[in-house]
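quick one, three chains, predict together pls
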Amino acid sequence: MVLLQVLVSGLLLGGVYSLVSVGLTVVFGVVRISNFAHGAFVMLGMYSAYWAHELFALDPYVAAVVIVPLFFLLGMGVYQLAFRHTIGKDPLVQIFVSVGLLVALENLALFLFGADFRTVRTFAGQTAQLGPVNLPVGLLIAFVVSLAVALALMALIQRTKLGRATRAVTQDRVAATLMGVSTHRMYSVAFGISIACTGLAGSLLMPIKAVYPTVGTQFTLVAFVIVVLGGMGSVSGALIGGLVVGLVESLAGYYVSPAYQQLAYFVVFIIVLLARPQGLFGSAVAAEIGEEA
Amino acid sequence: MTRTSESSTVEEPQTTPSTRPDANESPGRKIWAISLAVLAAIVAVIPLVTENNYYFDVVIGILLLAAGGSAWNLLGGYTGQISLGHAGFFGLGGYVSVLLFTQHGVTPWIGIPVGGLVAGLVGLLIGGLTLRLRGPFFVLATIAFAQVLLILAINLDDLTGGSPGVSVPFKAGVANMVFDNRGSYVWLIGGFLVVVFGLTAWIETHRLGSQARAVRESRDAAESLGINSTSVKLQMTATSSALTGIVGGLSAYYIAFIDPSSSFGIGRSIDFVLVAIIGGMGTVWGPILGAILIQLLHNELSGALGSSGAGLYLVVYGVLMIVVVLFFPKGIVGGLDIVRRRIRTNREGRARV
Amino acid sequence: MFRKMRWGVLAIVVAVLAAACGGAAQSGGSTKGISVVNALPFSGGLAEIGQDMYDGADIARQLVNEAGGVKGRQVTFTKVDAPDPQKGVTEVNRVISQDHAPIVFCCYSSSIDLAVSPVTERNKVVMLEAGAIAPEITARGFKYLLRTQSTAAQYAGGALGLIKDEILPKLKMDKSAVSIAIVHEQGSYGKAYAATVQKGVEALGLNVVANESYDADSTDLTSLVLSIKGKNPTIILAASYTNDAVLFFDQMRQQGLAPKVFIGAGGGHSNAVFGKSEGKNANGVFESSSSAHVNPTALSSDMQKVSEEVKKRYTALRHKPVSNQVILGFSGMWTLLKYVLPKADDPTDPASIMKAAAQVNEPLGSLPNGWGVKFDQTGQNTLAEPTVQQWQNSNLVVVYPNKVATAQPTMVPLPGWNQR
C-alpha cells in the first residue's frame, strides 16, 4: 500500500517537473539555447500569482489566465533584448547571458519584494482520498494541467503551420532557413511559449509552495536533467522524463534516504547520458549535436 | 588556422578566438618568457609595496580566480570542452588536502599536491567517460558530476564533517601553511599562478596546444592530420582538473575553512568560466585579465551599493555580465585585438596615402 | 551597430567601476563615532533572516544613540553582504581594512561564522555572533569572539525539558512506549541540533526510531513523511528553515501523519508565515528556541519598556510582528552597546572590549527574550536559556519554562488534523 502511495506521489511531483521542463525543452529544441534563467522565470510566475492574490484577491488559477499571455510577451521581449544577439555566437556566450539574467532576476526580486517567504492558501491545499491513496488537490491540478499543456503543445507542433515551421527549425535549421522560415520570429515565439509555460507553472505552484527570491534554482537543474533524459527539444520526452524523475526521487527518498533524493536522479541522469546520450526517447536535436559520430 | 582568421572580418570571426604569433616561431616563445617574468615580478613586488590586508585579500581573490580560470581555460578554452563542473575538482582538491591535515597530520605542502593528483585522476576518469559527449550534453554531465560530489560531501559526515564544514586550525607556521602575514599568501598563490601561466604559455607554443586547438575546431579534420584527439583531450582534462584541485587546496588553506556548498556549488564552476570568457577564452592572458575585472567589479559594486538595498549590487552585476558578454564575446583580449587591428589598419591606410 | 555600441558599453563599465571606487573610498570610518560592521546574509537563501537580524540590531543602535550614544559617542553601522563563507571572508576582510572597525556583528549561519571568525581573530577584531548555534564556534579557543546566542545544546535543552516536565506527564504513557523521530535540514543548523537532541532524548530513556536529514530547498518531502509515518513516532522533533517547515507540515497533513507531539527548533516553525500558511492546523505545535513574547514579569522593569519599544518600532518599519531573529539581532547588539562597551576603557579597542565583556554579569530578564548575559571563557553567553513557545489560536505564546511563560502548554496529545 505504501508503495502505491510512493508511486502516486512520485508521479504527481513528476507532473510539476514536467510542466517546468516543457518550456525549457521548447527553447532548447528550437533555439538551441541552454537557458539557465529558466527557474528564475518560474519564480517570477509565482510572485505574479502571489501579488495577483494579494492585490486583486484573484485565485492563482484565475490569475494564470492573465499571467500566461503576459509571460508570453515577456518571453518574446527577453529574446529580442538579450538572446537575439547571441544567435550564432559561442554557446558559452548564450549560457552566460542566461546566467547573468538569473543573477539579475533573483536579486531584482530580492530588492523589490525582500527575502520573506510568502504563501497563498486556497482550496488547493486540501487532500482528496482515492481508496488508500492520498491526492493533494493542488498537485493533482498541476499534474492534469501539465498533461494538458504537453498534449496541446504536441498538437500545436503537429497540426499548425507555426508548429510545422518550428519542427522544421528543430530538425534542420539550415534547410528551414533556406525554405524561408524566419528564424528570428520563430525563436521569439519559442521563447514566448517557454516563458508562458513558466508563468503557468508559477501560478500552479503558488497555492502549494512558498515563494522567495531563490525558489527557482531548485527547478533549473532538475529541468535540465529532464530535458536531456527526454531527448532535447522533445515535448513528449519532457513530459515522460519529468514523470520518471519524479518517480526516481520519490522511490529513492522512501527506500534509500531522503538525503539522497536528488543524488538518485543525478546518478540516473549520468548513466542515461553515458549509455544513451540521445535521451531515453531520442530526438533530431540530440542526433545533430549529441554524440560524435 | 591563426593566419586565416587574421584576414577574416572582425564582426564574424571564425571560431578562432584571436590572432596569436605562430605557434612554432621562436619570437612567440620569447614574448611569453618576458610576459612570465613580468607576471612573476608583479606578484613578487605586491607584498613589498603594501601592508593593507584588504588589498592582499583582493589580490589573493584575483590570483585564485585567475589560477582557476586558467586551469579551466586549458580544457574549455583551448580544447573546446565546456565544463561547468570544475567546482568538483576544486572541492576534491580542497577536501583531500584539508582532511589529510586535520585527520592525519599531513602537511599541506604534501597534501595540496596530493589533492591535485586526486582531482587529476578523477578528471581522467570522468573525462574518459564523458569526453565523447558534445555541446550541452557534456556541459550537463559535468554539472551533474559536481552536484553528485556536493550531495556526497554534505551527507558523508563521518568523512567530510558534513555541511558545517571543516576549519583549518589557526597555528601560524610555514609547515602548516598558515601565515600571520597575508603577503606570504600573495607569494604562495601568486607563485602558483605563475606556474599555471608558464604551463599555459608552454602548451600554447608547443605541439599539444596546436593539437588541442585543431581538435577544438574539428575533430575529424584533426584526426585526418594524424592527431589522436582522445589522447589530446585526456591530457588537457587531467592537467586542467589537477591544477583546479590545487587551486582548491590553496583556497582552503588561505580561508582556513572548507565547506561543501561553497566548494562544490555550481557558483564556483561559473566563476571560473566567467573569468575565462570575460578575459578571452583560449588565450594565456585572458583568465588573468578577466579575474581582475570580475573581482574588482564585484568588490566595488558590493562596497558601493551593498548598503543601499539588499540585492541591488547583484542586479547591476548580473546586467553588466549580460552586457559585457554580449558586446565582447571574445573577452578583453579579443577587444584589445580589435583595437590593435584598427590602429594597424589606420596606420596602413595613412601609409598608403 | 554592435561594433559602435561596444565602446559605449566599455565606457559604461569603466564609469561604473570608477564611480564605485570613488564611492567606496569616501566611506571611511569616522574617528569620533563607534563603527560596527554588520556582516549578514542579505542576499541568497538566508536573506530573510539576515534582514531580520539587521533590523533588530539597528533598532538597538537607534535606541542607544537617541539616549546619547556609548559614552557620548554615536554608533554607526556599516552593512556588508555575507551570503556564503567565501564572500563573507572577502567582505569582512575588505571592511576591516577600509573602515578599521573594531567590531564585526556576524553571521547568523554557522558555516559562514566558522569561515569568517578566523579572519576577525587574525585581525584581532571582536566578532559578535547572535544567530549561529553550532557548538564548534566557541570550541576553538578564540580570544576575540562573543556569542550571545544559545548553542545547539541549549536549544535542545528547551525541547528536552519540555518533554520531561510537561509532555511525558501529560501523555500518561510508559516511557518505553514513547518513540521519537528527528527530522532536520542537512545544513549546519539542522545537523548541530539533531545531534545534540538525539543524545538528550536517549539520555531521557526514550527510543529514537528515526533521525533523517533532507535538503531545505526540496520541492517534495512526501517520501520522508511516508517513511516517518511507517515508524509511527509519538513525538516528532524537527529543525527546519521556512520553505521546508511549511512543506513538511503540509505533506504530513496530506498523508495523515499524526504524531502526538510536534516540536520545532526556532527556524521555520517560529516564522509567522508558518502560522499563516497552516492556519488552525499549526495550533499545538511547539518550537524550542527563544521568544520575543516572554512574560513581561520575567523582564527587568527597564527591559519591559525597551521590549515594548522594540516591537513598536519594528512593526512601524516592516508592518509585521517581530520574529525571533529580530529579537536575537536586537539582543546581540543591545548586549554590546549597553552592557559591554560602556564598561570598556576604550570602546573602540578590541582588547579593551573583550576585557569588559568578561566582567559583564546581567541577570536573566536583561534582554527582551528573558535572557541574561554572562560570557564564559570561550565567549559563550551562559545565560541564554531556551524558551519553548506553542502555537495557540494562531499565535505563538511562551509555555515553558514556567518563569517566563504566559500560558500553559495545551493540546498534548495533539488533536487530529482539522480538529485543532
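The first strand of chain B starts at residue 166 and ends at 167.
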